[in-house]
Amino acid sequence: MALARARILAGPCRLNSAWLRGGQAPWRGVGTRVAMTECSCCPLLSVRPQRGLVDEKFRIVLRNLLPKQEVTLRSLHHSEDKDFWEAFGHYISDENGVINVVEDASVGGTYVGRKPMGLLWSMKPIPGSRSGLRLRKKDVFKPLVVTVSVYGGHVSKGFSEIKALATVVTERWYTAPGVQRVDIDEHEVKGTLFLPPGPGPFPGVLDLWGGGGGLVEYRAALLASHGYASLALEYLSPDRLDVKPSYFEKAYQVLQSHHLVAPDRMALLGLCLGACVTLTLVAHSKVVQPQCCVSINGSHVLPVDQSIDQAFLHFNKNVDKMVTDKNNHIIGRNHILPISSDPAQKVAVGSIKCPVLLVVGEDDQSWATLESAEDMTEMMSKAGNDHLLTVLSYPGAGHLIEPPYTPHFRFSNFTFQGSNQKVVLLWGGHTEPHAHAQEDSWEKILLFLQQHLHKSQDFLHQAKL
């Protein structure tokens, strides 16, 4: 049956910053398209909002179907690395010919059940793609463009050979309107500062990623979209591995001294090796005195109180503890096991004086983060500062706990800094519980930062989306 070209019922709109002050996003109501067919049934696909932040839920509704009609909803993304990612769910319309993805369950596909955001977090590379891929945003001032399409019947493959009944192109942004990007290269500190719109001053967050190195900006950009001046710090490169604690202290001071940053509202947020740096700084540094910190799947077993080289020396010393699974994917969690009973071998978490939020993926195959959290809890309890510790522990979640609706990667390609050795690391986790961990932990991280970094209701209203 021939299909006519889809026509847009609601046109595009211009982005503005009004919604950052608590109003409704200007793109609400955009994203409705119809594909006209020769039959009397003209499916109407609506995705709202069509443009929104990556951590914002969308609502997908399909109308004008036949009663109890079987259809497939599919998402497709063409990444900056030129790879295609997809997810799909099988649905059956109700007696009125309507499918509401928020309320109705997928009966098959890459996700099953009532999963409103399954078309994002269950994305995988399309069949025939390169192996070991990971989806990461590089240019945060360009959106993740995701095409949502509907197909007749329950389809699981061969989408390129089938014409869609209706299609909507959506945009998912890490930067809200008005967010500024500032290159930082001062006092030997390199990174990117993201500033929220408005006069400030804003709470400051030093954002630290892991051992993969390079400059990773997308989480910092998203934090700025929620009202935080966030510095994405570059601290590992192939020719610069011997990074001293003074480098992180300088970065903290650069952020703290910025004229749009409130110097008494500071936080550290780290993942993996960045979490080890975070814990070391808040426990040992006399310069870094934040109001709170967040550690995502890190450990206190690798104190970075001399240089980052300590961590790599520890890896090399314990390389024999690393094993591989049946697919030859490296399992790294054993390299810090068993956890030493000698306090001198660990970060002195008993001396931490600010609130700490630990996010733990219980199926983390890269680090022994669950065992580390248990040992940290015991150490802080003995020291009498366990009232400062909050632990979020997620069964079935892996190592790479990222902002909500990021696809889950159980394994991916990885290059160890300081060498040209390319391997495949097993991060762990299972798709659905990992997706839950990402959504739940991000919400609680934002609440944690709000609780400890905001001082007045006026400021809260200014920073709130």
Write the layout of secondary structure elements.
Elements: E1 7-8, E2 32-34, E3 44-48, E4 51-53, E5 59-63, E6 70-78, E7 84-92, E8 99-100, H1 118-121, E9 124-125, E10 144-152, E11 166-173, E12 180-186, E13 189-195, E14 202-208, H2 218-225, E15 229-234, H3 245-256, E16 261-271, H4 273-284, E17 292-296, H5 309-317, E18 323-324, E19 330-331, E20 356-361, H6 369-383, E21 389-394, E22 411-415, E23 422-426, H7 431-453, H8 457-463
Family: Belongs to the C/M/P thioester hydrolase family.
InterPro entries: AB_hydrolase_fold, Acyl-CoA_thioEstase_long-chain, BAAT_C, Thio_Ohase/aa_AcTrfase, Thio_Ohase/BAAT_N
Pfam family, one: BAAT_C
Written account of the structure:
The protein is of the alpha/beta class and 465 residues long. It has two domains: 7-173, Sandwich (Immunoglobulin-like); 180-463, Rossmann fold, CATH 3.40.50.1820. The chain has helices spanning 118-121, 218-225, 245-256, 273-284, 309-317, 369-383, 431-453, 457-463, and strands spanning 7-8, 32-34, 44-48, 51-53, 59-63, 70-78, 84-92, 99-100, 124-125, 144-152, 166-173, 180-186, 189-195, 202-208, 229-234, 261-271, 292-296, 323-324, 330-331, 356-361, 389-394, 411-415, 422-426. Helix 4 links the parallel strand 16 and strand 17 (292-296). The protein starts with 6 loop residues before the first strand and ends with a helix.
